Amino acid sequence: MRSIEESVVIAMDGSDKELFPFLPYILQDLWEIGADPDIIIKLIRKNFNIHTGLRVLDLGCGKGAVSVKVSKALGCMCYGIDALPEFIDYARRKAVELNVQGLCKFKTGDIRKEIKNLTDYDILILGAIGPVFGDYYKTLTTLSGCIKKNGVFIIDDGYIEDDTSYTHPFMFKKNTIMQQIEKAGMEVVEHIIMNKEEIKESDDHIFENLSKRCYELMKKYPDKQNLFHDYIKKQKTENYILENLVTGTTMVLKKTNH
Q1: CA 204, CA 206: separation in Å to the nearest integer?
Q2: Running DSSP on this structure, what letter comes out for residue 185?
Q3: Comparing C-alpha atoms, which of 164, 163, 147 is closest to residue 155?
Q4: 184 DSSP assignment
Q5: Do residues 40 and 47 touch, judged by C-beta distance below 8 A?
Q6: How far is Cα 88 from Cα 49, in angstroms, rounded to an integer?
Q7: I need a labelling partner for 167 at 20 to 30 A (CA). Which of 61, 89, 117, 149 fits?
Q8: How far is the C-alpha of 213 from the C-alpha of 198, rounded, in Å?
Q9: Rounded to whole angstroms, what are the CA distances from 139 to 33, 75, 109, 215, 221?
Q10: What confidence tens digit (pLDDT) does each residue in 74-109 have?
Q11: Based on C-alpha coordinates, what's the Rg of the chain?
Q12: Which pTM was predicted?
């Protein structure tokens, strides 16, 4: 099993776990650093008749943008967990700022350990967190006990089209994902394909802020210049992949009635 530091860095499209303690500084200008809260709000509205009081578990919640905005828009009870204490502090401040501190609870922790005692959620969100729990089959079977029988997963991810020869160490072909979902006793009931132009706009905004902070760190820590330079380079590569080689999607999954 990867260390939590390594898993977080991979989720942030990095490759060196030495980057972990610098992530709060690098990402200080950004709130939405994963899934699109508006898309998730739209999917919850479409798949549940009553929204107020729904119990939502947001694993790898980052700075809490999804949880806070979902609570504000729909009145859901959201519980977000992330490994970076600075992110959790920020999420709590945003909950207070938007007056949903009574609906949102946040905790610093390793989601792989925290899930052992979490059950009875209506919605479990995995918002662009990467393969923390393994492939889709492993992820869904590991987390299945966290949701109610009629609960849903909302997963923000990317997949490789079946007719391409492109491969990625942390992404799967569409057909492989669908087979693993079925094998896990689940089905896709809704999905939204992300607009390439919107992905590029978001990527450009994140990259501009992220690279600026990396250059600041290069000056502050000259001995770690390669670490930050490599992260900028990796971000460029990942942005190209997201914009050109994979399909970004947000899926709603539920348990099949067997």
Answers
A1: 6
A2: T
A3: 147
A4: T
A5: no
A6: 30
A7: 61
A8: 23
A9: 21, 27, 18, 36, 37
A10: 999 999 999 999 999 999 999 999 999 999 999 999
A11: 18
A12: 0.94
